[in-house]
Write a structure and sequence with these properties.
This protein is an alpha/beta fold. A seven-stranded mixed β-sheet has the order 3-11-10-9-6-4-5, sandwiched between helices. Strands 1-2-14 form a three-stranded mixed β-sheet. The chain contains nine helices and 15 strands. Bound molecules: pyridoxal-5'-phosphate.
Length: 363
């Protein structure tokens, strides 16, 4: 919760870029003026200095620690957003004509598979569009010749989340942009994990890529140098100037997660917040949840007004009460409440109270 200049309390439910821990914002602000007493701004230090190397090393080590991964995995911080990875993953993992399997449970999965089809044979093996992407399709078959299976672990826009990852005989690749580090999961199940930082890990502009080195083969095609994971591994994420400030903010957020108790604690908080939220939602008939209960996201709750003509009024009330970023995605509408790691339980409590008040007035 923040206090705006006019004295109003703000509750930040933005879907991304989204809320970050207050202590991270404060430390990052100080570092913009004076990085660790060096007299230089973190924006002014060279990326090949020991100062930045320490930032990068701590960020990488924190990722490995949180994910409990050994040295068969490499951690990279690369330019761009998750959308860059939609292209970079198939560019690095597919020869022309080879097959990759994709789960299309929402807008981001669909975009990922569309990009993959530029580099190989992208087969959509699961598609939940028959019910407007309100569930996760779990029964499907992966072609035997697929090089990998791609899933989106949390569908940010539609409000669904995989709570048990699929078992598959091929390497598993995941877009974890919107639920990375929100709870303890078995990261070893994955051969490649990527995430844009701005949902749960830091500032926009940097991608985390965690790759099991043994899935990187020599391909029968050229890969542009800046896109080539193997060259980035060789260069230790320093092939060219990385997004220094965005890496720094990620490092601070990772440090914060570890200090708060790691992924076990993040998971406990996420379950507490989303549990309270969905319990309230289910108790109020003026609101309507479309997502299948077992697939509900702990990060992004998407719901509607039972009477759509009340939506504008509810959104207006949210605005008046300082609830930021709760309008649903432009193609879906409705309401979306994002409950990332840095969102305090109190913000969810205040939002639930607002829903109850609205329900009483309309009931
Ligand atoms: C936000 C988001 C994206 C897109 O990220 P950009 O950084 O804007 O490219 C992709 N996948 C998921 C799951 C997202 O939540």
């Amino acid at each position: 919760m923040r206090i705006q200049a006019i004295g109003m309390k703000l509750y930040n439910f933005n879907s991304g870029p989204s809320i970050l821990p207050q202590s991270v914002l404060e430390e990052a602000s100080r570092a913009v003026l004076d990085f660790n007493g060096t007299g230089l701004s973190v924006l002014e230090i060279g990326h090949r200095t020991a100062w930045f190397q320490d930032i990068l090393d701590e960020a990488k080590e924190s990722v490995k620690k949180l994910m409990q991964l050994d040295d068969t995995y490499e951690v990279l911080f690369l330019h761009g957003g998750a959308t860059t990875q939609f292209m970079q993953v198939p560019m690095n993992l597919l020869n022309p004509g080879e097959t990759a399997a994709y789960c299309d449970n929402g807008i981001w999965g669909k975009k990922a598979s569309r990009e993959a089809s530029l580099f190989g044979n992208a087969v959509v093996v699961a598609d939940s569009s028959d019910k407007g992407h309100t569930y996760i399709k779990k029964d499907f078959t992966v072609p035997g010749n697929a090089q990998y299976l791609h899933i989106t672990t949390n569908n940010t826009v539609e409000g669904t989340q995989w709570h048990q990852y699929p078992e598959t005989h091929v390497p598993l690749v995941a877009d974890m942009s919107s639920d990375i580090f929100s709870t303890q999961v078995d990261f070893k199940k994955f051969s490649l994990i990527y995430a844009g930082a701005q949902k749960n890990m830091g500032a926009a502009g940097v991608n985390l890529v965690v790759v099991k080195k043994n899935i990187l083969r020599t391909l029968q095609k050229p890969v542009p140098t800046i896109m080539d994971y193997r060259k980035h591994i060789e260069a230790g994420s320093l092939m060219n100037t990385p997004p220094v400030f965005a890496v720094y903010v990620s490092m601070l957020t990772l440090r914060w997660i570890l200090a708060e108790g790691g992924l076990e604690e993040m998971g406990r908080r996420s379950r507490e917040k989303s549990g309270l939220f969905y319990k309230t939602l289910d108790s109020l008939p003026v609101f309507k949840a479309m997502v299948a209960k077992e697939d509900r996201s702990e990060m992004n709750a998407v719901f509607f007004l039972a009477d759509p003509s009340l939506e504008a009024e509810f959104l207006e009330l949210c605005k008046k009460e300082g609830m930021i970023g709760v309008k649903g995605y432009r193609t879906i509408g409705g309401i979306r409440v994002s409950m990332y790691n840095a969102l305090p339980l109190q913000s969810v409590q205040v939002f639930c109270d607002l829903m109850k008040d609205f329900a009483i007035r309309k009931g």
